[in-house]
Amino acid sequence: MNRRELRENTFQILFRVQFHDENEYEEQMNLFFEDLGDISVEDREYITNRFKNISEKIDEIDAKIDSCSMGWKTSRINNVDLTLLRLAVYEMLYDEDIPTAVAMNECIELAKKFGTDNSPSFVNGVLSNIH
Predict the structure, then answer these.
(1) pTM, entire model
(2) What is the fold, at CATH topology level, of the domain defined by 3-130?
(3) Residues 38-48: what's their mean pLDDT?
(4) According to the model, what pLDDT value does residue 130 have?
(5) Which helix (H) or strand (E) segment is 82 a member of?
(6) What's the alpha-carbon Rg for the chain, to the nearest Å?
(7) Which of 6, 18, 65, 104 has the most CB atoms around it within 10 Å of its CB?
């Protein structure tokens, strides 16, 4: 998989587990990878590690989103946009291999694909405040 596909799959698993208890995450990960079909060990490890890293920092990431989303606390942000923001903020703040502009652009592209008509501009606005 290329980086964009890895990012999209990471987004999808992050989104998926929001609807389950933490003790079900492993089962949900296994079901997710089963649905993906043929995936390399490296790609599976990358997605799994990225998911775990983001999950470990979720409170810090959400605090950053809350402080930069001007009137929109994470509890009010729809699940797709929130998941996209969490992924992008993680990449912007904690992943030195991904330039901030790339993290922002990729998140906006995913917002166009998975979000509402307003998602790209909303996500862009929040991420611009973080940058």
Answers:
(1) 0.90
(2) N-utilizing Substance Protein B Homolog; Chain A (1.10.940)
(3) 93
(4) 86
(5) helix 79-94
(6) 14
(7) 65
